[in-house]
Amino acid sequence: QVQLVESGGGLVQAGDSLRLACAASGLTFSMYSMGWFRQAPGKEREFVAALSWNGRSISYADFVKGRFTISRDNAKNTVYLQMNRLQPEDTALYYCAARKPPSTEYDYWGQGTQVTVSS
């Protein structure tokens, strides 16, 4: 079965960096667009970043532009989210998700990794 397993979360201070990873299995990774989402306590899940199967098409939420970078390694079936200059408002559970074009819906989701940023 398809599994997406996130890692790399933790407790950091404002201004620090973290690199999240999402390892995929059970699917042909190179055929899927991958995305990162997050959900803070009491808030709805929101889009963070996404990139196409070949990494050529990338999109970011406005609130992370210039601070976060999404990338992928198809040889390792892994997608990454490099997060720099973290702020307390970035505190959330971060999920990765997989979408097979041309579908616009994400078919598979991971369990999430917690990111907590202290001020």
> Quick one: how many beta strands?
11
Strand content: over 45%
- Count of runs of 4 or more consecutive helical residues: 0
- Identify low-pLDDT runs: none
Euclidean distance between termini CA atoms: 40 Å
- Spatial shape: globular
**H/E element string?**
EEEEEEEEEEE
Q: Which range best describes the helical content: under 10%, 10-25%, 25-40%, 40-55%, 55-70% or over 70%?
A: under 10%
What summary fits the major beta sheet?
7 strands, mixed
What tags apply to this protein structure?
119 residues, mainly beta, 7-stranded mixed β-sheet, 4-stranded antiparallel β-sheet, 0% helix
Question: How is this structure best described in words?
Answer:
There is one protein chain. The protein has 119 residues and is mainly beta. It has strands at 3-7, 10-13, 18-25, 33-39, 46-51, 58-60, 68-73, 78-83, 92-99, 108-109, 113-118. Strands 2, 4, 5, 6, 9, 10 and 11 form a 7-stranded mixed sheet that branches. The chain has a 4-stranded antiparallel sheet with strand order 1-3-8-7, with no helix packed on it. It is globular, with a radius of gyration of 13 Å.
